[in-house]
Amino acid sequence: MSSSLHPRRWPLRTRLIVEQVVLIAIVCAGIGLVTGFALRDFLIGKLDDDLRDAAGRVERVHAFPVPAPLPGPPKNPLEGPGFSQGTVVLITYGDMVQDADRLQGRETSAVPTDEQATLLNVPADAQPHTTTLGESGDYRVLSFRTRDGARIVTALPMAQVDDIVFRMALILGGVALAGLVAVSIAGALIIRKTLRPLERVAATASRVAELPLHEGKVALAERVPAEDANPDTEVGQVGLALNKMLGHVGNALEARHESETRVRQFVADASHELRTPLAAIRGYAELTRRTRDEVPDQIAHAMRRVESEAVRMTSLVEDLLLLARLDAGRPLAREQVDLSRLVVDAVSDARIAGPDHDWRLTLPASPVVVTGDPHKLQQVLVNLLSNARTHTPPGTTVTTALAATKTGATLTVTDDGPGIPRELQPEVFERFSRGDTSRSRAAGSTGLGLSIVAAVVAAHSGSVTVNSRPGQTRFTVTLPD
Fold this sequence. Notes:
Elements: H1 12-61, E1 88-93, E2 96-104, E3 107-110, H2 113-120, E4 129-132, E5 138-145, E6 150-157, H3 159-209, H4 234-290, H5 297-327, E7 335-338, H6 339-353, E8 358-362, E9 369-372, H7 374-390, E10 397-404, E11 408-415, H8 449-459, E12 463-469, E13 472-480
Parallel strand pairs: 8-10
Antiparallel strand pairs: 1-2, 1-6, 2-3, 4-5, 5-6, 7-9, 10-11, 11-13, 12-13
């Protein structure tokens, strides 16, 4: 059975209606069977009474003085009123059959020999028995012996009993079918009305599920209506529990947002404040390097290291400050940007910075133009190419491709390096994340490059994805017009 056809996957409304109809059908079938058997027993009992009455009349009509042939034609035991159609009478003396007649209309007909044999096999115990007389059908048979030794066998057809039971079964079946249809329609309407509060609760949960709860300040004002949060009903208990959960989630989201706001503000303030002392450190380091006085080699090396680390820390601070501004929703510049020119410039710079890599470029014939901040988009290109250069070994081929789409532009940066492990791919755009477990590293990095790419692209209402396997890693950036 297909999984979609399994009853457990049916909607609750459908399951309730089907279970209700099946239950009523079982009850109707049980009532029909009990009624049918009871009616049949009642009709057979009435038929047995008629059979005994007929046997008594036959015994009274036909008197047997001695067990010898009577002079003249025997009197027909079926003559006279009170016998129903199809009544069979068989009278024997010893092994001799005196009468074997069946009433048909106003006349009687002889009972066939094979039916006579079947009737004579019925025990002469004066108790009704059911037997089949060939093509004539089922009969109730009463056989007994008189005091003078004669045997009287009387039989009444059961066709009328079976016909009544069959008609009753048809009537009950029709009534039950009509009742099931009526119950199905009424049940569907009642169940639909009953489940409307549950549907409203589900609608509220669906609206909450569509909210962007993972970012920014979320006003979680969605609640289940008061009429659907009545603790006296089962659905109301679900609605009330959902409202309580939404309240707790709203408080947690508000606390999270406040904490994130404080952290972002701290990062922005710290980054801003660190720029001045870092600039001073770099200035003094450069001043020491440019002095005319003789400086010991050890001190000169130390100052070069100080200057180098100050430059790296300044880059980190600038990255943190940019992320803090993007997180705060600072508006970006909005102007027409020629992505083709930006890509050419970025790849040219990357070729100079990484001469040991094979840099390739694929551009459309016409310029690709989008609306955005040119400086931020250039940083996206620089970070993606720097990421490919930094985390792949020398000799790696890096291909940058740009294409125009109906809704904007698509930029891809593909390298044939060792790739990113599958378990690390969802984390590459997280801050301070690195995929160094499988991608070699020729130079240090802050772990913020791809985070800045994701933040800038998101600020432009675009998307960035990564698809990696050994021998191919592809970053795809999609930007709207």
